[in-house]
Write a structure and sequence with these properties.
Largest sheet: none
Number of strands: 0
Helix content: over 70%
Distance between the termini: 40 Å
Function: Joins adenosylcobinamide-GDP and alpha-ribazole to generate adenosylcobalamin (Ado-cobalamin). Also synthesizes adenosylcobalamin 5'-phosphate from adenosylcobinamide-GDP and alpha-ribazole 5'-phosphate.
Number of domains: 1
Pathway: Cofactor biosynthesis; adenosylcobalamin biosynthesis; adenosylcobalamin from cob(II)yrinate a,c-diamide: step 7/7
Order of helices and strands: HHHHHHHHHHHH
Shape: globular
EC number: 2.7.8.26
Structural class: mainly alpha
Catalytic activity: alpha-ribazole 5'-phosphate + adenosylcob(III)inamide-GDP = adenosylcob(III)alamin 5'-phosphate + GMP + H(+); alpha-ribazole + adenosylcob(III)inamide-GDP = adenosylcob(III)alamin + GMP + H(+)
Protein name: Adenosylcobinamide-GDP ribazoletransferase
């Protein structure tokens, strides 16, 4: 059951060739632990390009290509939609803008800041030891997926759609997802690094979730995607800072 749920999670959260079927999707959307477990797998793939002794700009470019080659751009699309929604006033207008296929300045700014932020995180990462790179990238991915599990457990649906299908979790399931994420603390020489990364990632999730509830009326598929991207970005930078300073 857990393996089926993880396969469903990887099918939804990445472009890894795990196949897609209804049973895997159903198992995934009812299993909070599948989120962070998938994060471990995805994180390992994302760390690989940063392990090669290449010039820093090349490493950063390969990292960006790998992130979106492995995870796809659906989550970035969610961030872009939220960027456009943040640029207008009124809940109804925001929901309308998010369904619009046109790309506005809010979307462009949000995506640009994300991509630049990821590239700068990669620049900071390649200056660290190899074990630190793996620890930070994997922990960031697990943290971002744990945030999505939190939305699924505590969020309320804005409307019928992908988001409403995922919001079928329980607080108990989220606790299990936290337990599954704890081994990331052992990846770093100091558990404080992992605690800081997971804590700030969950804080980012809480802020996005509260914003979505207040401004959009609840959580949607776009909110899940934006949370994933922003939580990963924040966790990566916090990991680099913590490892460098402590």
């Amino acid at each position: 059951m857990v393996l089926t749920a993880v396969r469903g999670a990887l099918g939804f959260l990445s472009r890894l060739p795990v196949g897609h079927d209804e049973s895997a999707w159903e198992a995934f959307r009812r299993s909070s632990v599948a989120f962070p477990l998938a994060g471990y797998v995805i994180g390992v793939f994302l760390a690989i390009p940063l392990l090669f002794p290449l010039p820093t700009p090349v490493d950063a470019t390969l990292f960006l290509a790998t992130v979106y080659g492995v995870t796809g751009i659906n989550h970035v699309d969610g961030l872009a939609d939220l960027g456009d929604a943040a640029a207008v006033h009124g809940a109804e207008k925001r929901r309308t803008v998010m369904k619009d296929t046109d790309v506005g300045v809010g979307a462009l700014l949000a995506v640009a800041l994300l991509v630049v932020g990821l590239a700068l995180a990669a620049v900071g990462l390649v200056a660290l030891p190899l074990e630190a790179i793996v620890a930070i990238v994997v922990t960031a991915e697990v943290s971002s997926k744990l945030g999505m599990a939190g939305l699924a457990a505590f969020g309320s649906s804005a409307h019928e759609g992908l988001g409403s299908q995922l919001i079928d979790q329980t607080p108990r399931g989220f606790v299990l997802a936290v337990v599954v994420s704890v081994p990331t603390l052992a990846l770093s020489w100091s558990p404080l690094v992992g605690i800081a990364m997971i804590g700030t990632s969950l804080l980012t999730t809480a802020v996005v979730g509260q914003w979505a509830r207040s401004w959009l009326g609840g959580v949607s598929g776009d909110v899940f995607g934006a949370t994933n991207e922003l939580s990963r970005l924040v966790a990566l930078h916090v990991g680099v800072v913590m490892w460098t300073l402590f």
